[in-house]
Amino acid sequence: MNKIIKKYFLSIICFVFLSFGLFTYDDVLASDFTLQGKLYFPDNDVSEIALGTISVKTYKLGSDKVTKAEVKKDGRGQVSFTANLIDLNKNDQLIVVSQVEKESGLFGGLSTVITDKELTTGVIGGLTIYLSEIPVPVFEMTDDKDLKICWKGMDDFSVVGYEIMRSEIVDTAYESVGRSGQTAGRQVCFTDNTLDSGVKQYYRLGVLTSWSAGEGKEVMISDALSVPSNGMMLTKGVVENREVVTINTSQQNDLTIVQVVDENSFDNVIDKYLVIIKNEIEKRGWSYQMVLLIAIALVLVVIIAFFVISVEFANIRSGGSGVWERKVSRSIFSDMESKSKDKKKKK
Fold this sequence. Notes:
By secondary structure, this protein is an alpha+beta fold. It has 3 domains: 28-132, Immunoglobulin-like (Sandwich); 134-286, Immunoglobulin-like (Sandwich), CATH 2.60.40.10; 291-346. It has 6 helices and 19 strands. It has helices at residues 2-23, 25-28, 116-121, 269-284, 288-317, 323-346; strands spanning 31-40, 54-60, 66-68, 70-73, 79-88, 93-100, 106-113, 123-130, 132-133, 138-142, 147-152, 159-167, 175-180, 187-192, 202-209, 220-221, 231-233, 237-247, 255-261. The protein has a 5-stranded antiparallel sheet, with no helix packed on it. Strand 10 and strand 11 (147-152) form a beta hairpin. The model is unreliable at 20-29 and 244-267 (pLDDT under 50).
């Protein structure tokens, strides 16, 4: 009896250890990896982007440990990145984000999962991140308590929301006033209800990635921010229009500054009204294609109306003699007669 118990007991122990080994096999394979990839910028133009302003960071989903990658630029202008990652297991999900800290902040990111291939090679390669400009919030509507701003959501899988920053000074002292969600390629809005009446405010956006970035950190916030918005006030809306102006300098990189536009800065009346129209289009969230189609339709309506009115005036000036009607009738009769002659000739 004791021998049977010992036999089955040893079998059970062996089964438990074997099962434990199978279930923890992937953890045993936890290894170090080399992360490799390339960056692509809007219009593929990196000549005006200083290498020191570009950063690439990666972290495992559920962990707040961030690894910074080394960024390089070759002679052809191609920007690549490399990072050494440790203690990763199969099925771990990585978030890789890149940003450019300048006046018009750029951001891009991707997500990748550790598979058997990466475990075998030790390389997480072939990654490509496409960066784009962080959208600028524009005025939507206001009353005596709330001010609503909107923007177009970035087409980026890694973006899960936006940090809304506000300041009374256009170039500095921005503080967070809330967060919004994300809808890629569609309008995203935020309503600010913490404003003081009569105080001009500016807004900038930061980008949020991942809702599970480690204990106590539901998201990661980008260091890069959008261009500051127009100056806005409660009940008044936009009170200061701003334009981005590129100044050519003797250095390799041009200097981009922000110019405040007022009524006296326009060269002529046409420029003034063009800017007003542009601001109205952006404020109402219309597309330029739709506005162009409406403008073409209005021009056609005006042409048709002009032709009809001209005909009516011609009839009036002819004293109601029906000159135009007779001309039209003669033209129709002449066409019918010529067609009749053609048929007789054919017969």
